[in-house]
Amino acid sequence: MNSVIYRGPKKWIILAPALIILVAMTIYPIFNVLIVSFQDWNLLKSPEPSGLIGFDNYTRAFQDPDFWNSVGVTLIFTIMSVSLSIIIAIAIALQLYPKGIYRTILKACLIFPYAISPALKGYTWRFMLNPHYGIIDKILGTLIPSLQDVVLLGTKSGALFWLAYTEIWGWAPFIALVFIGALDMIHPDVFAAAKIDGVNKYQMLRFVKIPLILPVLLMVTLLKTIFSVKVFDQILTLTNGGPGQSTEAINFFIYKNGFKFFEMGYASAQSVLLILFMIVFAGVYIKTVMKGDSNA
Amino acid sequence: MNIIKKLLSKLVSAFGLLVTTIFVFLPIIWLSLTAFKKAKDAYSTSLFFKPTFQNYIDIFSEPNTFSQLLTNSVIVALLTILIAIPVATLAAYALSRFHYRVKNLLLIWLLSTQFIPPVVIVIPYFVLFRTLHLMDTRIALVLMNLSFVLPFATWMIKGFVDGLSITLEEAAFVEGCSFMQVITKITIPLAMPGIITTAIFTLIQSWNEYLFALILTRKDAITMTVGLNSLVTDRGVIWEQMSAAGIIIMIPIFIFSFLVRKHFTQGLTLGAVK
In which band, very low, low, confident or very high, does the pLDDT at A4 lie, cut at 50, 70 and 90? Predict the structure, then answer.
């Protein structure tokens, strides 16, 4: 990297506006949430916190079955959406990696599901999964007769699966694009050599293609995990947390406590726990990105 | 035998392409079709119907308020860009060209902001905006959008500036250009394609934003995405109007993301994947 040592205050002056906004919009909220998490504060009862209560909000979270429910929902959602997104993305990438006009057009369109607002994604799928006039409901009912009378979003596991599927629909094509980019970087001779050595299609995938894109694959898995843990918008528009509390992932749970029940102290404590959890993943991610950056 | 094998593999790959196409497009196509259906057609899975523009007329007229929602979305997105891009460009230039003892810390900070869940950031600001009477204002939304847009834009533009050679800037300094002249006359024009790409990403992000607007708006400052909620009524969801509103949200995003498609994977993974 080419960096020049200019002296004087100018280098701080042009950085200042960004620093001021970033302190206000990222550091301040986190410190505020940390402080509020040790306080008893229901916004409906008082506009100010009503005193320090130590770790009570944290112990309350650890003893709250609804909190653990949201942790479980987040975990299952994350595992499902990450693994299926990656698998479907590999399948799409292998389909579209070869050259061809139709494939090129399709490749250009892979960004669309990802670019759609997640809130709109949720509504779109809610419409398509409707038991009376939903197209997916009709198609599945025709293909698999045993599903004919099942309300797809009606059961707990069904709702969670379709929530994950909505996420997969947005992400798998995008991840496929990343994989295609990685495959394009590999010299075609590598595949030709493997072919001469007589590997079959499965071996080509298992021992040549996947190992070669492994760094990218791991990076995307990490990134997708972080984004899955952050899921919120489409929960509200697809299932609104239901049926029961079966799709209340952690962000939705914090939202409910903070902005439906106005338990600011309790919601803040959950936020701190969530941030601590995210730091682990973000740490690994940042380490990898920074390493790549200094090599560039 | 060989011909049959070849034919079979052609058939398999054609089938694969078909499945992929359906997987990617079905929701988009279905939403687009419904947006042009009359109410009675929307609640059936029929493919044959007489198209109508009535849904668009409906959402832009009473009692719906989509003209106001659209105005809000456009203004919030534009204001976010107008603040974020110049501020980010200056910061990106500084971080790319100058030496700071805490530079690595600043870069880690930029990256880590992308992982803070928005619901965490909105908690203290919800309280603050209530006291400052900034609830339900566009400016509150712009401020909140900056929390994730500004670090993202700074990181992206820094990547583009890193790619520019420094020799031209040095020559300009030798020729007696001032510090701001170098930035505005040399670096910014050269980095312009990257800055525009970043601006488009910024636009997409604030256009699609949902959670901040959901929590911080009530009536006057509601944006398009949150406005969709108004079509969920006591008597059920008005899907044909929801679809029409969805098309209006979707089309600009499709156009803009198509324009930056070459940078898409790089942009949204913060350059982790090139």
Answer: low
CA distance A209 to chain B (A): 17
- Which of A194-198, A202-206, B221-225 is the most confident on average? B221-225
CATH of domain A10-295: 1.10.3720.10
Cβ contacts of B99-106, under 8 Å, gap ≥ 24: B99/A3, B99/A4, B99/A5, B100/A11, B100/A15, B104/A290
Contacts of A216 in chain B (CB under 8 A): 273
Q: Look at B179 and A10 and tell me if their CB atoms are within 8 Å.
A: yes
What are the φ and ψ backbone dihedral angles of B125, each rounded to 5 degrees?
-75, -30
- Nearest-CA residue of chain A relative to B231? A123
Domain ranges of chain A: 10-295
Percentage with pLDDT > 70 across chain A = 96
| Greatest alpha-carbon span in chain A | 76
Domains assigned to chain B: 2-54 (no CATH), 64-268 (1.10.3720.10)
pLDDT in tens, B168-225: 888 888 888 887 888 888 889 999 989 998 999 899 999 999 999 999 999 899 999 9
Check B119 against A25: CB less than 8 A apart. no
